Amino acid sequence: MFHFIHRLQVLKSVCSRFVQVRSIGSRFEKMSGDIKAVLIDLSGTLHVESDPTPGAVDALKRLRQQKDIKVKFVTNTTKESKAVLMRRLLKIGFDVSEEDVFTSLSAARQLVDAQNLRPYLLVDEKAMEDFEGVPQEDPNSVVVGLAPDRMNYEDLNTAMRLLQSGASLIAIHKAKYYRRSDGLALGPGPFVCALEFATGVSAHVVGKPSENFFLSAIAGLDCRPEECVMIGDDVSDDIHGAQTIGMKGILVKTGKYRDGDQDKISPPPHRVCADFAHAVEEVLSGL
Amino acid sequence: MPSSTFAGRNIKYVVLDITGVLKESGPGGGHAISGSIDAIKRLYKNGFQVRFCTNETVMTRHTLVQQLKNMGFVIDEIKVFPPIPAVCKVLSDRKLRPHLLVHPDSLQDFEGVDCSNPNCVVLGDATEQFSYENLNKAFQCLMQLEKPILFSLGKGKYYQEKGNLVLDVGSYTAALEYATGVTAEIVGKPSPTFFGAVLQDMGATASETVMVGDDIVSDVGGAQACGMAGVLVRTGKFRPRDENHPNVKPDAIVDNLAQFVDNLLANMA
Question: Which InterPro entries does the record associate with it (chain B) (predicted)?
């Protein structure tokens, strides 16, 4: 059944992107030498749980030595603040500073600030520090992340009533489910859907694969999407999402990668590599 | 048999929604909507066939009818059609064993249903039982099945409870549908099978039947899709914007059940 559902999703995304296929490069195109920024997914790409993927620590150092290439870490997280992610990366051995990290929570925060929103936050307690200083009285928007403690009848009813009275709906991301120690567990997507179904309000999805996410991630880096590479293990959220706005996607065969993933999107990934270290080799050899 | 010219038809049969039409919900089952106890008596007195069609799943049919009787309604349990008896029949016909995510007070109506080693999920209006972990159990159950089957007892979006809107079962069904890719089979309004069973019980044809409800989509739209006339009342969960619904145009909109019955009886042949 997983397979079947996935096929359906792929078919959908292929159809919706069909018109853009021609304008984006093919897999045989040589990676150009004017790459100015590399976007890197975290979990599954740079590390799997608390271990780096093979050669990743050194590869990142080598990439960092290229003065004309900027590096940004991009991730869909709904419960880990930047500070939490940073601590984990440092502990694993990666040299990262906070301004290098752009998460779906950062994207949500940007949107909240830009639109002067007063959000009702259905997010995990750990994520609250990314919303520090945001006014929350008399809410005019609802922000939904993954927060099992908040996904209850009472709080969802409150969210629904706010949406009924005109609040906007922001989804940190819309993942269907994720893997937990006891098996699969519901992601934020289903709860976003419940609220959308109840109220007729469509959520503004801020995380990957939304185009705005990738554009916001490179804002201030002084480069165009065509000059950026996205390295990730999720063929739809990382690679398809980035390639949709003209970035070059490198799919790595670690983390959630499954055989044949590269055939599930059109156009296919710009490159497919064994792991992050090999992806970095590709980037550097193209320069 | 009596009949009335209503909405350009010859109406002989009346199907009534319960919550929001007969009574407003609230503590102890809520309270009767003004004029509705008498309205039903007038329908009986004039010889109309009446059935009650509800998506109520937070209590047993017996409790529901008892509450209505205590409020003063004259109502016979066998003329009340809630989704749980209907889904029990489906489960038995198709030899399915459900994982139940339903209201604890409705469990008695599932008595005798084999829930061991489940091969489908039944979602009712579980209210406070709609926790992350309970939804996750239903989700995991569906993901383990080779041919996952999800039954949704109605597919309402929300309803009014103690003066506040609360999410109805349909919203949680939408969540599970999105997570699993399974399309739920709806048992209850607006399922044509469900309305069909009610018509069959009266020996009625759809074109001679009117459905009165406060849910523009499930009651009015659902009945119209089956060929019945659909009447919207301005009680219960009704909101002014329902009068301009993009897809559903009621055959009539009335202030309440009493006004509907006034109109129906005024046009009797």
Answer: HAD-like_sf, HAD-SF_hydro_IIA, HAD_sf, LHPP/HDHD2
Among B104, B105, B100, which Cα is nearest to B60's?
A: B105
Give the residue range(s) of CATH 3.40.50.1000 domains in chain A.
Answer: 2-8+33-76+208-285, 117-205
In the block, residue with structure tokens 């916001």: A216
Q: Is any Cβ of chain B less than 8 angstroms from the Cβ of A188?
A: no
Range of the domain at B42: 4-55+190-266
Mean pLDDT of chain B: 96
Q: What average pLDDT does this structure show over A127-153? A: 95
Q: How many CB atoms lie within 10 A of CB A90?
A: 12
Q: A235 pLDDT exceeds 90? A: yes
Q: Long-range contacts of range A25-29, CB-CB < 8 Å, 24 or more positions apart?
A: A25/A248, A25/A267, A25/A270, A26/A267, A26/A268, A27/A267, A27/A268, A27/A269, A27/A270, A27/A271, A29/A270
Chain B residue with the nearest C-alpha to that of A7: B181
The pLDDT of residue A8 is 44
User: Does 3.40.50.1000 match the CATH number of domain A2-8+33-76+208-285?
Assistant: yes
Nearest to A194 among B139, B145, B175 (CB): B175
| Chain B touched by A194 (CB under 8 Å) | yes
* Contact residues on chain B for A8, CB-CB shorter than 8 A: 181
Query: Cβ A197–B181 below 8 Å, yes or no?
Result: no
Quick check: A186 and B179 CB within 8 A? yes
Q: Bridge-partner residues for B164, per DSSP? A: B161
Q: Which chain B residues have a beta carbon less than 8 Å from that of A162?
A: none
Residue B183 at interface with chain A, using a CB cutoff of 8 Å? no
CA pair distance B252, B76, nearest whole angstrom: 27
Reply yes or no on whether the pLDDT at B17 is more than 50: yes
When divided into structural domains, chain B yields a total of: 2
Predicted interface score ipTM higher than 0.90: no
CB-based contact, A220 to chain B, within 8 Å: no
Cα–Cα dist B154/B175, whole Å: 14
Cβ atoms of A171 and A222 within 8 Å: the answer is: no
Confidence of residue B1 (pLDDT cuts 50, 70, 90): confident
pLDDT tens figures, B123-147 = 999 999 999 999 999 999 999 999 9
What was the pLDDT predicted at A78? 79
Strands B49-53, B80-81: pairing is parallel
